[in-house]
Design goal:
Rossmann fold, alpha/beta, single chain
Length: 290
């Protein structure tokens, strides 16, 4: 294996201070990874379907220089609690609201990847007064592609039902433009999550959004995208396996205060595959440096 594949999360985080912790959000024990100064503007980072806070290990410290930054395990995910219920978008929105309440945070910038972007967009509509800036990173909520939904279900359930190194790596490689971007640390991390108590029972509930009827009622309509009032960055990639660049361009065209950026040579996790470029674009937008 190459040296790149052996890169540890510690290589991403060793140059700064960070902490892992748990908070209670409306009774949901919620895991977070945090870096930053209390009192700075709050930034919440939201992962995608079946994911966890480690999706942002390469971004946390860069953002902590300017923001009080939290990457959370959303309800049902990672090491957060997993109530026995279908995880439609409203469930995640209320969990996010409860996290902000527990942090004593009146407003926050919110950046979400895939499912996390979908949650962030719905949060923007329900709680506009609590949102600063919004980042929709290869976001869900706009498509109904049967082949993509089936791929997500098949790869994810294979990895959860039998979390071997090979099944977990296959799930992660699908996210990337370059399969070599999947490090051993990332595979080991996700394998541990998928082996954790409660994950096997929770995953079919998480995957309810891959059912066409359920997905359709959770998707945003054109009118709903157009109703988002927060300054918004729609960030896409040229090799996203879930949706074409034109999907991101359309979303950005509908949101009144949106700008669109496409990162080249990246798949569904640009924040991980090309962290330096992502961090530069992301911070420029969040700090309003344009």
């Amino acid at each position: 294996m190459s040296e790149h594949q052996h890169q540890s999360f510690w290589a991403d985080l060793r140059n700064g201070a960070f902490e892992q912790g748990y908070l209670m959000a409306d009774g949901i024990r919620t895991r977070y990874v945090h870096a930053g100064t209390r009192g700075a503007p709050v930034l919440i980072l939201l992962h995608g379907t079946g994911g966890h806070a480690e999706a942002y290990t390469r971004n946390l410290l860069a953002h902590s220089e300017h923001f009080d930054t939290y990457a959370i395990d959303m309800v049902g995910h990672g090491y957060s609690d997993k109530p026995n219920q279908p995880y439609e978008i409203a469930v995640y929105v209320e969990h996010l609201r409860a996290v902000l309440d527990t942090l004593g945070c009146a407003t926050a910038h919110i950046s979400g990847e895939s499912l996390g972007g979908w949650v962030a967009a719905r949060f923007a509509l329900k709680y506009p007064a609590r949102l600063g800036r919004l980042v929709l990173n290869t976001t869900g909520g706009a498509t109904l592609d049967a082949a993509v939904m089936e791929k997500i279900k098949t790869l994810t359930m294979a990895a959860v039902d039998n979390p071997t190194w090979e099944t977990v790596r296959a799930r992660l490689e699908w996210l990337m433009a370059d399969p070599a971007s999947v490090t051993d640390d990332l595979v080991a991390c996700r394998q541990a999550v998928y082996r954790a108590p409660g994950m096997r029972a929770a995953m079919p509930q998480i995957l309810c959004l891959q059912d066409p009827e359920i997905r359709l009622r959770n998707n945003l309509t054109d009118a709903e995208w157009a109703a988002i009032r927060a300054p918004t960055l729609v960030l896409w990639t040229d090799k996203d396996p879930t949706a074409a660049v034109t999907v991101g361009e359309k979303i950005a065209s509908l949101i009144p205060k949106a700008q669109f950026v496409c990162m080249p040579r990246c798949g569904h996790w640009p924040q991980f595959e090309d962290a330096p470029t992502f961090n530069r674009i992301h911070l420029q937008f969040l700090r309003d440096l344009a």
